[in-house]
């Protein structure tokens, strides 16, 4: 079994973002997607701290301390990109102008509920931030996360045990083991990492699964 690395997960998700979409990348793993947008495809990346047209991470030594994403990581700006007020950024989100948001999560339920925030002082980005606005305002929400916790507990569940960020918001999940869609009858498998079997995936998933790879569309 060869689970995908975080870089491979980001590249896999980037492949699925269509040309012309406006996309917000949540704090954490989703920000890696910016480095893997296919060449020649125009995906306009948005950051809620007030950037549109965000590019990949800068080369080491060429960081601009004034140009950062919402997670305080240095980024670049594509030609034609822009900066604007925080309030204008959230007007874009709340106004339904973002085609896709990719968030990290602690748990995703089989009906699309998402739990992705915490209040622990040990967390690098405590509290909910803009995730509630993004989950409610973006046209689509995908999640990028490890399939299990560090101690092996499933993060794909029938019902979230953590406080919810949003209800029935998630449509697709990218983990280190699989790509899954949220369907009416549970999680539908669209792709598996090399060597991952259905039996193994079921053993680390606490919700119904079905293999939809043969019927998967674009």
From TrEMBL:
The keyword Ribosomal protein does not apply. PROSITE patterns: COA_TRANSF_2. The lineage of its organism: Bacteria, Pseudomonadati, Pseudomonadota, Alphaproteobacteria, Acetobacterales. InterPro entries: 3-oxoacid_CoA-transf_B, CoA_trans_fam_I, CoA_transf_AS, NagB/RpiA_transferase-like. SMART domains: CoA_trans. It comes from the Bacteria. This is CoA transferase subunit B. Keywords: Transferase. Belongs to the 3-oxoacid CoA-transferase subunit B family.
